[in-house]
Amino acid sequence: xxxxxxxxxxxxxxxxxxxxxxxxxxxxxxxxxxxxxxxxxxxxxxxxxxxxxxxxxxxxxxxxxxxxxxxxxxxxxxxxxxxxxxxxxxxxxxxxxxxxxxxxxxxxxxxxxxxxxxxxxxxxxxxxxxxxxxxxxxxxxxxxxxxxxxxxxxxxxxxxxxxxxxxxxxx
Length: 171
Fold this sequence. Notes:
globular; 7 helices; about 45% helix; five-stranded parallel sheet
């Protein structure tokens, strides 16, 4: 099996995709599970009715959190995930674009677009430094109320690449 390259998590055998919420059709869990089956090393976990601490532990262990809804208001779970500095992919519905700035604090996709979801998951898996930079920008936004610019994120990525070069590790 392929090892995850996620810099927060070290090596493991699965790319862990997490989502959470009530099991209702408009949450898009079935589509996420179907997309997740495209790769044998992708593991999809859907949290429903977990105690808060168990939910946070599951999210902290994730390589990416996905909110694949067809409808949302202002989902508090995204605030919680941002506070945990976990990469996010979410649909461009309801109040989500007010929380997730595409390419800055996460990745936004259209609802009911399995191909866009697949591509976004591949992007997070293959571009872990960018995904981590977006997660840090989301954390900073929640913590300090400051939204990083694309230039600041790119600068952070370049700095991380230089540090990896100095340490002789692969980003």
